[in-house]
Specification:
16% helix, 62 residues, two-stranded antiparallel sheet, alpha+beta
Length: 62
């Protein structure tokens, strides 16, 4: 997989996978994958959650 020169599948070949928004399931979205090794492309934003997200979670803990 490290040697793979990823080639994305076509628009009609995308796989439908579940996705989440703010930790809640929202259904299915089409994801591209590599036709050589099968790795699925990450389509989620790679940004950090705000500090309030963690403080609210900690406040709800018993």
């Amino acid at each position: 997989m490290a040697d793979c020169k990823h080639k994305s599948c076509g628009a009609g070949e995308k796989v439908w996978l579940p996705y989440e928004v703010k930790g809640r399931r929202r259904g299915l979205k089409p994801h591209s994958y590599c036709v050589h090794c099968g790795v699925v492309k990450n389509i989620s934003p790679d940004r950090a959650k705000p500090m309030g997200f963690y403080t609210n979670k900690l406040a709800r803990m018993p």
